[in-house]
Design brief:
The chain is of the alpha+beta class. It has four helices and ten strands, in the order E-H-E-E-E-H-E-E-H-E-E-E-H-E.
Length: 200
């Protein structure tokens, strides 16, 4: 649901700060934004839905049962705590990311990705890995902590892709530079933000 979501991208890439320090700043900003009048929730994301940009990578389930979804290409995104609540995308099983989760060792699958990678078993608590050097120079392996509702990503014209979500991490900062703020104002008019109104 993008009807009541405001998108803001501050030039944090100009800050001379280590990735961990910038992640701390993003989290403080989210917490401060959520205190503003009219704001229901806020979060950060690496890639913004409905912009036509949809990164993909090869992922593989780690399972002992026979399956056919080997080295499958999935869309992926890296998002902060509260992303699914802000985007009104339901978590069907498990949970969202927590503030202290800043590594790619946990992940959330959408329904389509979960049923595709784990057709013969429940995906929650299972593991997914990627050895795609173009997307991830260092191989990643993550435990599935949540199953999210399918949602369109790059465009309204195409159906929901099979999607894997990582928490934002210092690797995210190193690769994309800036994160994008998503601010949900509920059924109120979109909230216009001015950086001079926010003290962190």
């Amino acid at each position: 649901d993008l009807n009541h979501v405001t998108i803001q991208t501050p030039p944090f890439h100009q800050l001379h700060a280590e990735p961990d320090a910038r992640l701390d700043l993003y989290q403080r900003m989210v917490e401060r934004i959520e205190q503003l009048p009219g704001v229901m929730s806020a979060a950060v994301t690496s890639y913004t839905p409905m912009t036509g940009d949809q990164p993909v990578a090869l992922f593989q389930s780690i399972t002992n049962t026979p399956h056919t979804a080997e080295d499958s290409r999935l869309a992926y995104n890296e998002v902060g705590p509260g992303y699914f609540r802000t985007m009104k995308t339901a978590i069907l099983a498990g949970r969202e990311f927590e503030k202290n989760e800043r590594q790619r060792n946990v992940c959330i699958l959408n329904q389509s990705a979960a049923s595709y990678l784990f057709p013969n078993e429940a995906a929650l608590g299972r593991y997914v890995r990627s050895n795609d050097p173009k997307a991830f120079p260092q191989a990643v392996s993550c435990r599935v902590i949540g199953i999210a509702q399918d949602a369109k990503f790059a465009s309204l014209r195409t159906g929901p892709p099979r999607t894997l979500y990582f928490p934002v991490s210092k690797e995210t900062i190193g690769q994309v530079g800036n994160l994008v703020f998503l601010i949900n104002s509920g059924d109120r008019k979109s909230t216009r933000l001015n950086s001079s109104h926010i003290t962190i």
